[in-house]
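hi! just following up on the protien thing from before. the input was this:
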Amino acid sequence: MDLNKAVETQLNNIQTKTGKSLDELVAWVKATGLAKHGEIRDRLKADLGLGHGDANTLTHYALQSDGASQSANKSEDAVLDEIYSGPKAALRPIHDALMSRITTLGDFEIAPKKGYVSLRRKKQFAMLGPATNTRFELGLNMKDIQGTDRLLAQPPGGMCQFKVKLTDASEVDDEVFVWIQRAFESAG
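and the predicted 3d structure came back as:
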């Protein structure tokens, strides 16, 4: 799947939902006087009735701040080196352990962003990246499963339905892999 085409389709759908052109939507965002991503996203959700994903994409478009643009023209390794630099460098082995298992599942697209990596088939099934300097988060999208103390269910409307917090590569075990496999299969 071409991510640029997917974003273009999403932006076209947003225009249809709102009845406004992209130029009008960007002008609307600028007229709010808000500058922070989260504030703009929340305002779009409240005032225009957009879902989280649409509001997030439109905010990135309006601010020209999407992670894909910021990682454009850089190799995947260069983006990963930026994500896992400084105090977050110790979390790179968790990323590598996850990816070594995930690559055994079959074909998928890797979409590096500014602070994380998105994994997609027909849709996103996982997000990987540092949450803090000492904690890594694996976000997963899958249906018909209950959260646990380890597989943390997330509020509806977010980028991922579940999160797994990891602090060491040894925590990338069979239980985590079963969840990843289920998310992979759910994504088409």
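The two ends are 11 Å apart (CA to CA).
The chain is about 45% helix and 15% strand.
cheers
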